[in-house]
Specification:
By secondary structure, the protein is α+β, with helices and mostly antiparallel strands. The chain folds into two domains: 194 residues, Jelly Rolls (Sandwich); 27 residues, no CATH class. Helix content is 21%, strand content 25%. The longest helix has 21 residues. It is globular. InterPro entries: CHP02466. Pfam families: 2OG-FeII_Oxy_5.
Length: 265
Amino acid sequence: MTRIEFINRSSASNVASQVNLFAAPLLIFRWEEAEYWQAEILAAIETRRRASKGMQRTNIGGWHSKRDLPGWQDRATRMLTHWAAERVTDATAAWRQGESQPAPRQWRMDGWANINPPGGAYNRAHDHVMLNWNWSACYYVSGAPSTADQGGAIVFEDRWSGVQTLESATRRSFRYAPSDGELLMWPSWVSHSVEPHEGSADRVSIAMNFHSPWLERSRYWTHRPGFMWRNMPWLMRPLARLRGSWDQSPEGAPPGFDINIDETF
């Protein structure tokens, strides 16, 4: 059920009536088992860094693993991804209070590890809405800044607003310095960047995206299915499974891994 609110108009002609539209939540969780699993998570990430040069995406000067972290088989990262998926369900339930449809308990998920070494490595501004993700998140494994001069803060920006002064190219922004063991979560359309890391040790984090077909599809999804996927998805889906590919039909979820928070392992 959609809740509709009406603006109360001011009776004075020169007094503005205002309502704040489309607020974006930033949710901050702390994993109680962070210290217990930290060493194992770092070891799993280091194993992959030694085996791969990584990917170049928004990272400038850092290392970016493949986007297959939810499929890693070590117990530590599996515990983390399952816990993060539970928090996405909690966040969805809180954000959709009053709606009859319960929050999803199964998610399509992707994720990857980031390592920003000392010396100014950073991530340029970007969002994840183009691949039809609903929620994005970042978990901080180790190396979070302890002082302001070490940099590495995450910055969220309102890049959709055209209201700004001619003297300044900056948009409305929110800066947050995370701590080890924290999980930050926000709607995938929110633009975010990471300031240069000037600390003395590697800054290690894990980025994640979550999608559910029960939530609203992104209006900015760039995926355009091919002819066969548009007209014969019933044939293409089993072929894709055989090839290890993803469902590219108009109703398909983005490529990733299915996580059910009710499953135990």
